[in-house]
Design goal:
Structural class: alpha/beta
Shape: elongated
Number of helices: 11
Distance between the termini: 28 Å
Strand order of the largest sheet: 3-2-1-4-5
Helix content: 40-55%
Largest sheet: 5 strands, mixed
Strand content: 5-15%
Number of strands: 5
Radius of gyration: 23 Å
């Protein structure tokens, strides 16, 4: 009887750990998206002074979720993991209840940009997880000790998570859950024959020229490489100009979209800037100064500012479907490989 009860507790803790791990990984895979979520929470809580630290706070919280998940799954530091899990679930439950009561115009961000829940759904999800935590940890004793090899598994899993987080922070998210993902069609490129569903799902760039005229049609005509700058103060303008002029040598039209003013653009006058909303540009491409390739309005590829290939001209001039398929396949294999490896470490090691 007691053995069966302990087994039930371990299974409940493991299931709770999986939820924490998935939630943390999805947010670490998209640190800029997590920053936007944390920023909305800080605004809701009337804590604007912490907004400059939103990215760091988001990464720290996401890693804490991953660490709790790894601890609960492997049994390493299970008591500490249980305490932190209780604290986090209690805080999340109260916060989502407040969002529900005040009907805050924001997403809970429980699973980053991957899954969107209403405030009511978020609250009841947390209540269910709290009930699962009660099964797993009450009474608060008899946690047992993990075997030595589980400690090695926890270390390897943690290192893998850190590596994936660093990659997503330096380059682009391993998986793109934004409206501007591979294969999405710009609103400006849709014709009258498009379905209502296509119109509803199509993302809008909504950018203006220096005269204030909207010029979205430019991004939907033929081959276009859009260079997006959501933070003019921190972008490397010299590198951006180099990539812009390289793209101009191809068959594509280069477009520079900036979330700022004309005075903030530090490029030669022969490069015409266009202006768009901050959230639009950071959603389009998480890399400040990154490039996004459209072929007749269809998003074919993205590059971070650190990932522009030396043969950019050849890539843009080649078959757009082949380029998109090659890179989508590579990203899918990377994401699936990471998940399989992490599962193998945690379950089979």
């Amino acid at each position: 009887m007691k053995r069966g009860y302990l087994k039930l507790r371990r299974h409940a803790a493991g299931l709770l750990g999986i939820v924490f791990l998935i939630s943390g990984i999805l947010k670490l895979w998209d640190p800029m998206g997590t920053m936007l979520i944390v920023t909305e929470y800080l605004k809701f809580l009337h804590m604007p002074g912490l907004i400059p630290a939103a990215k760091g706070l988001g990464i720290a919280m996401s890693f804490a979720e991953c660490a709790v998940g790894v601890g609960l799954i492997t049994g390493v530091l299970r008591k500490l993991s249980a305490i932190v899990a209780y604290a986090m679930l209690g805080g999340f439950t109260l916060l989502t209840l407040a969002l529900w009561i005040w009907d805050a115009p924001m997403d809970c961000g429980c699973f980053g940009q991957a899954v969107h829940l209403t405030h009511a759904q978020s609250f009841w999800k947390n209540v269910i997880l709290l009930a699962l935590a009660v099964i797993a940890f009450v009474p608060f004793r008899e946690f047992g000790r993990a075997k030595a090899h589980r400690g090695v598994a926890a270390i390897l899993a943690t290192l893998a998570i850190i590596a994936a987080a660093i990659y997503s922070n330096l380059y682009l998210p391993i998986v793109d859950f934004t409206p501007f993902n591979w294969g999405s069609q710009l609103f400006a490129s849709l014709d009258d024959e498009a379905t209502e569903k296509e119109f509803r799902k199509a993302p809008i760039l909504s950018f203006r020229d220096t005269q204030g005229e909207y010029r979205d049609e430019l991004a939907a005509e033929g081959r276009v490489v859009v260079f997006s700058v959501y933070d003019p103060e921190t972008v490397d303008w010299e590198t951006l100009e180099m990539h812009y002029r390289t793209a101009a040598m191809s068959e594509a039209l280069p477009l520079l979209l900036v979330a700022g003013t004309e005075e903030q653009v530090r490029l030669p006058q022969d490069i015409d800037p266009y202006f768009a909303d901050y959230k639009t540009l950071i959603t389009l491409n998480r890399s400040n100064g990154g490039g996004t390739y459209f072929y007749y309005g269809e998003l074919m590829h993205k590059w971070s500012v650190r990932q522009f290939p030396e043969d950019l001209v050849t890539d843009v001039a080649g078959d757009p479907d082949a380029l998109s398929t090659r890179h989508v396949t590579r990203r899918r294999v990377t994401a699936q490989g990471f998940c399989v490896a992490l599962a193998a470490i945690l379950i089979l090691f």
